[in-house]
Design a protein that fits this description.
The protein has 448 residues and is of the alpha/beta class. 32% of the residues lie in helices and 23% in strands. The strands form three sheets. Strands 1, 5, 6, 7, 13, 14, 15, 16, 17 and 18 form a ten-stranded mixed sheet that branches. The structure holds flavin-adenine dinucleotide (FAD).
């Protein structure tokens, strides 16, 4: 691939920052509920609270949609993130709830798009787990069996049956969900939030969260907010305050890239008839998806752990871009001459259990990490359930399934530099085996 003219961004390749960023908080305020963070999670929480008549204030450090909500791959998944085999081995009783949560989250976002009339290029074509070789195909069949056992749905087939490029052996298509432009989705939800009765302050970073005089007091450079209840919706940035539960999550940096527009006949030659986004079955996935602008967006393959807070605003480095471009050329040899037009990245939060988590610190501060790389739909759905909990006092069964009774979490394994290198090496070993097998098959098929 050509990577000489890549536009490196510290925001997103999907959309530009808004031209109408709202003023920051200037003075002191009192409210019933304060939401910190204006990603899909925080915005959906505040929107639901406002809709249900609560006096709600949302504080966002940059602008709503600044975080991973506008930067992700735009794939609405209806299957939990992480390795379902490991999850069902270690948390067999939690998995059915996670499966239900993931599927209902996808439905929630579809409804949000419809009811708010958000133009975000949504195509409900289901995400496909794609196998790059026979080992990954076996893994996909196992995952599909676990999914079925635990109440989920997925259709296993060859690449031809799933309508995905023949470079993949086959895979499993998820039953609900699809792909969209996440920048446009976040912007649409931001618009809905700004027109709601919620008070929204952008460029307002919360620097401290403390309890004082029976209230939770949020400090910002321009003033304070005193609230009866608070929702922490800061995703990967959550570790910034003393009040955040220890070991709630670790921040990981991942990247996305977009090709230049590709001629329709070259795209048609890929036999990607379903247009389903594909995620490979490596330990750390690669994902590839078509866009409404005639390009392919692809990403991840390598993750990097954030070490200190505040998390830096980063642009991808060239080496990472080179590696991911190399992977693209392997998966799509017919498009190996295409140029990469832009590259960006973002921070996600990974929990030590790989389960989505929501909970409460005492009875006034709610938090959730509904993510592990699949939060585009889960974060807003869980946010809206937290809003309902605040108003009704009772938990929906989907929230119950991920509820942490105490804010205490186990230590992390395999997320240090050595662990991440090992995982990466394992994935490249898989690629090596698949590469030699493909070459051997091609040689055997050649006429003698
Ligand atoms: C490269 C990439 C690809 C991904 N691909 C997918 C995908 O295809 N499908 C999928 O389901 N998920 C995907 N994800 C994950 C998904 O984007 C996230 O899980 C989801 O957007 C999380 O939403 P959120 O609202 O919790 O967090 P965010 O969108 O990160 O929002 C958090 C907000 O909090 C604000 N904030 C932080 N600190 C403060 C503070 N002190 N005061 C005030 N505000 C603060 C931030 O500015 C930010 O706007 C991907 C993520 C990345 C980075």
């Amino acid at each position: 691939m050509k990577i000489d003219n890549v536009e490196y961004s510290t925001f997103s390749g999907w959309i530009d920052p808004p031209a109408d960023v709202l003023p920051s908080l200037d003075g002191d305020l009192t409210c019933e509920v304060a939401v910190i963070g204006g990603g899909m999670g925080g915005m959906a929480t505040a929107l639901r609270l406002a809709e249900r008549g609560q006096d709600v204030v949302l504080l966002e450090a940059e602008f709503c949609g600044y975080g991973s909500s506008s930067r992700n791959g735009g794939q609405i998944a209806s299957v939990p993130g992480g390795d379902l085999r490991l999850l069902s081995l270690f948390y067999p009783r939690k998995v059915p709830g996670m499966v239900r949560l993931a599927e209902n989250s996808a439905g929630f976002v579809e409804d949000l798009i419809k009811t708010r009339d958000i133009d975000c290029d949504y195509e409900p074509n289901g995400l496909a787990f794609a196998a790059v070789g026979h080992g990954q195909m076996l893994r996909t069949r196992t995952l599909a069996a676990i999914l079925r056992r635990d109440g989920g749905r997925g259709h296993v087939g060859t690449s031809e049956e799933l309508g995905i490029p023949r470079t993949f052996v086959g895979g499993m298509r998820e039953a609900v969900g699809g792909m969209l432009n996440p920048g446009k989705l976040s912007r649409g939800v931001r618009r809905a939030l700004i027109s709601s009765p919620a008070q929204v302050f952008e460029r307002t970073k919360v620097t401290d969260v403390r309890r004082h005089g029976g209230k939770v007091v949020l400090s910002t450079p321009g003033g304070t907010v005193r609230a009866n209840k608070v929702v922490l919706a800061t995703n990967a940035y959550s570790g910034e305050w003393d009040i955040t539960p220890k070991r709630l999550s670790v921040p990981m940096w991942l990247i996305e890239m977009e090709t230049e527009p590709i001629a329709p006949e070259r795209l048609a030659a890929l036999d990607w008839s379903s247009r389903s986004g594909v995620i490979t079955q490596h330990q750390v996935m690669e994902h590839y998806r078509l866009t409404a602008r005639g390009t392919i967006v692809f990403g991840v393959r390598r993750v990097e752990r954030g070490k200190t807070y505040p998390l830096p605003a980063k642009a991808p480095d060239r080496k990472l871009v080179e590696e991911l471009a190399g992977a693209f050329a392997t998966r799509f040899p017919a498009l190996a001459d295409v140029a990469v037009e832009r590259a960006w990245g973002g921070w996600i939060a990974i929990t030590s259990s790989w389960l989505s988590i929501a909970g409460r610190i005492e009875d006034d501060i709610h938090y959730s990490i509904a993510c592990n790389g699949h939060g585009l739909a889960q974060a807003p759905y869980v946010g809206s359930l937290i809003a309902d909990l605040i108003v009704d006092g009772s938990r929906h069964e989907d929230l119950d399934g991920i509820w942490a009774e105490k804010p205490k979490f186990p230590p992390f394994t395999m997320v240090g530099p050595r662990g991440l290198r090992m995982v990466w090496a394992l994935d490249r070993f898989t690629d090596l085996i698949n590469g030699s097998r493909r070459r051997a098959l091609r040689a055997a098929a050649r006429p003698r």
